[in-house]
Write a structure and sequence with these properties.
By secondary structure, the protein is an alpha/beta fold. About 25% of the residues lie in helices and about 20% in strands. The chain has nine helices and nine strands.
């Protein structure tokens, strides 16, 4: 059919073989994963407006035949600072991996600045994974880690030159870690390590920055320093998407909030999204509501 993508024939494993995603918090378990086929999910391709940095249209994605994301759709304008909230196992990390081009979609489409994730967008995107996914005992210095952010352009067979070293030094300075440039990464505190990986993502001056739980396990001072840095980057035109469990920071820092529990529960400005009804639908009826919740 003209203008439509070919019908997707992806088949899931039996629902009886699927268990609920692991829930590490004491609040609630996520909603049931998406288990049906994708035969009816074909939709028209569209070109987002030039002002749109991220366009996600009907995306299903996951692992080993089970979708974690269930027909997720939303757009992010260039220069926006967007927070993604939801319970553990709800698809927040999966969404960032899809945007970073690290995980293919089963159906739907993703465009970054009008292009699908891939080699053309690799240098446009800086990605900071969760700190628990990193081997902190690896014997490398802060400068070594940040220089790794230049390998996408150089390739692993080429050594960084002075341009790359100057860019790394600038990125390290941006995150306030110049005094630790020659320090082994495992000797740093959790907050310092997180700053170093933000610097690695910044070294090629990406247009889009994706951060997975950047303030998890760090103290309040470091949280404020990280968000202040991100706000400064946003003011210079960087589009930023951050996942977080900390609802107290949502209203203060984010332009818009995506409530995610396998599917989009709500998406909009914090004052319209942070309601008891929306948070109950996102986290379940037993979520603890704080002062950030709108009445």
């Amino acid at each position: 059919m003209s203008g439509l993508r070919p019908m997707h024939d992806h088949t899931h494993i039996s629902p009886t073989a699927v268990t609920e995603p692991r829930e590490h918090s004491h609040i609630v378990a996520p909603a049931t994963p998406h288990l049906h086929g994708h035969q009816g999910h074909t939709r028209a391709m569209h070109r987002p407006a030039p002002s749109v940095a991220i366009s996600v249209d009907g995306v299903c994605a996951g692992y080993f035949g089970r979708d974690v994301l269930d027909e997720v759709s939303f757009d992010v304008a260039q220069g926006e600072f967007v927070g993604v909230i939801g319970p553990n196992g709800s698809g927040k990390s999966t969404l960032l991996k899809v945007l970073a081009g690290l995980l293919p979609v089963q159906c739907g489409a993703v465009q970054l600045f009008g292009l699908p994730p891939g080699p053309q967008t690799q240098r446009m995107v800086g990605y900071v994974p969760q700190s628990e996914a990193i081997n902190w005992s690896f014997p490398v210095t802060v400068t070594d880690v940040v220089l790794m952010g230049t390998y996408a352009k150089l390739g692993f067979l080429h050594r960084p030159h002075q341009r790359e070293r100057d860019a790394a030094a600038h990125a390290i300075e941006q995150v306030g870690m110049s005094a630790f440039a020659d320090t082994q990464i495992g000797q740093l505190s959790g907050g310092q390590q997180q700053r170093v990986f933000v610097a690695r993502a910044l070294v090629e001056q990406p247009r889009l920055l994706l951060l997975d739980e950047p303030i998890a396990g760090v103290d309040a001072t470091t949280q404020h320093a990280i968000f202040t840095l991100l706000e400064d980057l946003q003011q210079h035109g960087t589009t930023i998407v951050v996942t977080t469990h900390d609802l107290s920071c949502v209203a203060e820092w984010f332009d818009r909030v995506l409530c995610l529990n396998h599917r989009v529960i709500a998406y909009g400005k914090p004052e319209s999204v942070l309601t008891r009804e929306t948070l109950s639908a996102t986290f379940g009826s037993h979520v603890l509501f704080g002062a950030a919740v709108a009445t």
